[in-house]
Amino acid sequence: EKGGYDYFMLKEIAEQPKAVADTLLGRIGAEGQLTLDELRIPAQVLKMVDKVVIVACGTAFHAGLIAKYAIEHWTRIPCEVELASEFRYRDPILDARSLVVAISQSGETMDTLMALRHAREQGATVLAICNTNGSTIPRESDAVLYTHAGPEVAVASTKAFLTQLVACYLVALYLGQVRGTKWADEILPVVRDLARIGEEVERVLETMEPVRELARSLAGHDTVLFLGRHVGYPVALEGALKLKELAYMHAEGFAAGELKHGPIALIEEGVPVVVVVPSPRGRSVLHDKMVSNIQEIRARGALTIVIAEEGDRAVVPYADHLILVPATPTLLQPLVATVPLQVFACELATARGNEVDQPRNLAKSVTVE
Ligand code: M6R
Q1: 242 is catalytic
Q2: What is annotated about its quaternary structure and interactions (predicted)?
């Protein structure tokens, strides 16, 4: 059942190109238009939306954080992202013009379910992004966009995360399409890139041996830090979460711009820091800032592990280890940049003798508070 792999997690990492392609299947038309009629939310309602609120837990929350950048950029609708466990005990301001997106692989996470009930009581439209047909969260939502990752067995989420990202991009692009924002000039080219992204994920998977080797060499460390900016920041958080749950190591993700506000004090000789570098093309100011951050931490002794776009020469002098990923539009980069972090965490867990598919103290689906 593990299809020749030692762990479900390895199998699920390998299935990602297909999972991504399956989640796109039938949802992009020949002209590049999004065909999400399956949502059955009337265009009138989508046109009226004046606020998007995303609620989720764990890895699904990280997908939501990335979605915020895409939604606000492509649709100009303000978007908030909140941990479902915080949202449900707050007094959030919602009404009939609010679109609440609940992201959940299992569709059974208690906090996310309670958050969506809370949202519906206040008249918001709730859209579920879910991987499990007929589960409670989509059943209780107004609309659902299923991810087609197939069953995810390993406790650590991998393919579900990538497909949640795809679903979030589809929703963001669709909202842009329905509302006519930035359509032809910006959205259409991105749709074309998104349609091909499964192949890029496949290419990343083919180059993972050095990442595994690096992970094994770090098995004796007790801390790994992760830095990112823009959509690279949630990727850093996700890389750190994977490492905590699988390798039981102290792992933390930071927004690179926060370094000087505290975290840089953690940098000492030999501490491994994974840095997610945005594309040098397009909004290159982000890239340049990240390169200076790498220089800063390296000058203080950090062992720099740099994830950057193929052809990015500027990072080479400062990378103790360089992991290259294919060029993508900035907003789509998480789909390729997360994969090495999954492989890294899985290999580190194995090297430390941990149980990969069933980490201690964790359950696949958290149906209690
Ligand atoms: O089933 P859900 O997507 O609602 O689950 C949310 C989290 O419990 C889940 O993503 C968790 O953080 C994973 N173990 C992370 O790998």
Answers
A1: no
A2: Homodimer.
